[in-house]
Amino acid sequence: MRWLRTLATAYGVLATLALLVVLVLSDGHVVSYVLGLFATWWLAPALLVVPLAAAASSWRTLAAVLAPAVAAGSLLGPYALHRATPSGRTPDLQVATFNTSQWRGAAGVTSLLRDGGPDVVALQEVAPSQQRRYAEQFADYPHRSYTPTSGSANDGDAVWSKYPIVSVQAVTGMPDGARPADVVTVDVEGRRIAVLSVHLASPCLFCSPAEAAGNPAGDTGEAARVRVAEARRLAELASQLRAAGDAVVVAGDLNSAELNEPLAELRAHGLVDAHRAVGTQPGLTRGSSPGFARVDVVLVAGLEPVATSERGPGGSSHSPVVADLAWPG
């Protein structure tokens, strides 16, 4: 058993070092950014090592794995808790987000929207040609808004709604390199919800200088700074909208996971991560199921999460996320 204890101790030391790298370097370096994205996978084993080390009275191993185990418990613990204590509330509204991967997830869109689909859908990577193609389809969604594209025909975001869209305003104050975003206000039976379909700056992992120059947000470090600035602006805007009396939904692809900065920034300013609040599984939406990171989120203010689910991607490199929401009280 000595070699097992040695292996477990080595894992604990390496995982602790990885945590330090993520905390110190944040998203500004390709290594720390990728470690943050994949954190669920390399932290989860710590939850198995701790009881085994305790049972074997291997205190050195236990000490080595303690920090990763705490981090893993923080990431994964809420899902076990939610399975044990289901909400039981009846939802008033269903909202979904889906990065269609330049509409390669068309089958996923069809599956998501048919048979009484979500009331409001935030879509990412919708090209103008796809707007025209789908103009006469999905009659349950007569109210639609599209952001302008930003130099790429496949970078448009959209909000589709069963309820009337009463106003659309462009988000101002975003950093250079950010994709355009709109505040789409939806009237839900007399209650206003400000919906933002967002797609934060894409990373340029392992890019050559020429490739980084072609990325609107720049190289890995530059793109990380753009994402954080985007998240801060969106959080600030959400606070203003909430203060004005609107409920707020920020939904989309953050290009970052729970140990990366943008999601933490948005949560810190009062937006509630619906999946973390009520989800019952990790919900790794990026990549084929199971994916490698939860980058697609529904964040809310002035609404209470009831349940979340992950739907089939239908060819996209992302899975749709559906959130059941209730009015407060």
Walkthrough of the structure:
40% of the residues lie in helices and 22% in strands. It is an alpha+beta fold and 329 residues long. The chain has 2 domains: 83 residues; 234 residues, Deoxyribonuclease I, Chain A, CATH 3.60.10.10. Strand 1, helix 6 and strand 2 form a beta-alpha-beta unit. The N and C termini lie far apart (55 Å). 47% of the residues are buried.
Structural class: alpha+beta
Strand content: 15-25%
Say which CATH homologous superfamily of the largest domain is assigned: Endonuclease/exonuclease/phosphatase
- Cross-sheet strand order for the largest sheet: 3-4-2-1-12-11
| Rg for CA atoms | 21 Å
> Average pLDDT value?
92
Structural key phrases:
329 residues; alpha+beta; Deoxyribonuclease I, Chain A; 2 domains; six-stranded mixed beta sheet; 40% helix
Question: What topology emerges from the helices and strands here?
Answer:
Elements lengths: L1 H24 L4 H8 L1 H5 L2 H10 L3 H26 L8 E7 L6 H8 L6 E7 L1 H6 L9 E4 L9 E6 L3 E6 L11 E7 L2 E9 L9 H6 L5 H24 L3 E7 L7 H8 L3 E2 H5 L17 E6 L2 E7 L10 E6 L3
Parallel strand pairs: 1-2, 7-8
Antiparallel strand pairs: 1-12, 2-4, 3-4, 5-6, 6-7, 8-10, 9-10, 11-12
Helix pairs in contact: 1-2, 1-5, 4-5, 9-10
Task: Summarize the model shown.
The protein is α+β, with helices and mostly antiparallel strands and 329 residues long.
